[in-house]
Automatic annotation (TrEMBL):
It comes from Serinus canaria (Island canary). GO terms for biological process: central nervous system development; gamma-aminobutyric acid catabolic process; glutamate metabolic process; post-embryonic development; succinate metabolic process; synaptic transmission, GABAergic. Its EC number is 1.2.1.24. This is Succinate-semialdehyde dehydrogenase. The lineage of its organism: Eukaryota, Metazoa, Chordata, Craniata, Vertebrata. GO terms for cellular component: mitochondrion; synapse.
Length: 437
């Protein structure tokens, strides 16, 4: 059956015919998140390591999707289409796709869940969430609040699992005929595995995969604004977000001033330490593998002629702590400009012309976010239209919010989350033709 769990009506469940009720329970879930913001943030810092202030920010962001989709639940409109035959009338209905399997990463242990689940529940679907093995606690805490919000048992389900179990659990979720939809956020490599699994039963899929965000600073830019944007876009969550800048492209006329001010800002404003310490802006990386990747990218770049302006090595605190790093004299031959680093490394490539910068930016096989700084309106339009990405920040380094569509092009994924488009990922379109009238 396409809808193994009653998706409309019955059993006094969340999926009641009363949209108002679905909406109200999502809204209550949102309110409970905000009422418990401090505790939820502490869970994130404990399991992920990010600074408490960032964790509090994540909870506000995370909860905003429940609030947004509580509202969107009431705007699932169909259509009446003028028919070409006199004796026909044509309707379009929107129906929930059914059970959605939701597989999420560790970098936003709460928000990556609500961004999907808010939309799914608003549409009338039920969900099975498999959180990342490093961060299962936020997913379970959300479950407790879902219960308190009156979301019926069986609607929001969580299946935490160990690293050894991940592949097997993932395979069940992505191949079982009872599951109609897969929504995944994570690496492109894992996304491709899940797409292959999904093919067997032709499931609907949404994929939010890796990025390789360019951050272009043109000669016309306001350099102080660019430095502030660079700091936020690169070092948030210690560089561990899919929309974090991965490569800086800086035009030759502004290059030296930008590098000098950026290095100063890094040294003055970034503090590595325990996420629970109020001064900390940079927590540890998620695990040893993540640290090794940053080290590998730095070693490769330096061996090919890059210069370390600041940072460059493991932090004296040990474990998974790493120094925020800035490299110059970087070329497109270096690993750090070819693949996602997912860590606190800022490589700077110097360029001469706009066309050159756009060509370097678009050479990637992924296209999630892209940023650029310019004060020239014609250039702003040209570059915004030419960048092969799903999201563009013009003179802004942080651009995601509930009302805006999040997603990428190329190998960065399929579909959009948040915004008025996000709910479509969980809805089927059904055309109904009334004949013989
Ligand atoms: P990362 O390398 O950053 O951990 P992944 O894409 O591997 O990114 O992880 C994102 C999510 O995908 C996590 O929940 C992880 O458990 C899950 N995952 C990883 N491999 C598989 C797999 N083979 N099947 C299903 N889920 C998987």
């Amino acid at each position: 059956p396409r809808f193994p769990v009653p998706a409309c009506g019955g059993h006094g469940s969340l999926v009641s015919p009363l949209l108002q009720e679905r909406s109200a329970r999502l809204r209550r879930w949102y309110e409970l998140m905000m009422e418990n913001k401090e505790e939820l943030a502490r869970i994130i810092t404990a399991e992920n390591g990010k600074p408490l202030k960032e964790a509090q920010g994540e909870i506000t962001y995370s909860a905003s999707f429940l609030e947004w989709f509580a509202e969107e639940a009431r705007r699932i409109y169909g259509d009446v289409i003028p028919a070409s035959a006199k004796d026909r009338r044509v309707l379009v209905l929107k129906q929930p796709v059914g059970v959605a399997a939701i597989i999420t990463p560790w970098n936003f242990p709460s928000a990556m869940i609500t961004r999907k689940v808010g939309a799914a529940l608003a549409a009338g679907c039920t969900v099975v969430v498999k959180p990342a093995e490093d961060t299962p606690l936020s997913a379970l805490a959300l479950g407790e609040l879902a219960n308190q919000a009156g979301i019926p048992a069986g609607v929001y389900n969580v299946v935490p699992c160990s690293r050894q179990q991940t592949a097997a659990v993932g395979e069940v979720l992505c191949t079982d005929p009872l599951v109609s939809k897969i929504s995944f956020t994570g690496s492109t490599a894992t996304g491709k595995i899940l797409l292959k699994h999904a093919a067997g039963t032709v499931k609907r899929v949404s994929m939010e995969l890796g990025g390789h965000a360019p951050f272009i600073v043109f000669d016309s830019a306001n350099v102080d604004q660019a430095v502030a944007g660079a700091l936020a876009s690169k070092y948030r969550n210690s560089g561990q977000t899919c929309v974090c800048t991965n490569r800086f492209l800086v035009q030759k006329g502004i290059h030296d001033e930008f590098v000098e001010k950026f290095a100063k800002a890094i040294d003055k404003e970034l503090h590595v330490g325990n996420g629970f310490d109020a001064k900390t802006t940079q927590g540890p990386l998620i695990n040893e593998k993540a640290v090794e990747k940053v080290e590998k990218h730095i070693k490769d770049a330096v061996s090919q002629g890059a210069s370390v302006v600041t940072g460059g090595k493991r932090h004296s605190l040990g474990k998974n702590f790493f120094e925020p790093t800035l490299l110059t004299n970087v070329t497109t031959k270096m690993l750090c400009t070819q693949e996602e680093t997912f860590g606190p490394l800022a490589p700077v490539i110097r360029f001469e012309t706009e066309a050159e910068a756009v060509a370097i930016a678009n050479a990637a096989n992924v296209g999630l976010a892209g940023y650029f700084y310019s004060q020239d309106p014609a250039q702003i339009w040209r570059v915004a239209e030419q960048l092969e990405v799903g999201m563009v920040g013009v003179n802004e380094g942080i651009i995601s919010s509930a009302e805006c569509p999040f997603g990428g092009v190329k190998e960065s994924g399929l579909g959009r989350e948040g915004s008025k488009y996000g709910i479509d990922e969980y809805l089927e379109i059904k055309y109904v033709c009334f004949g013989g009238l």
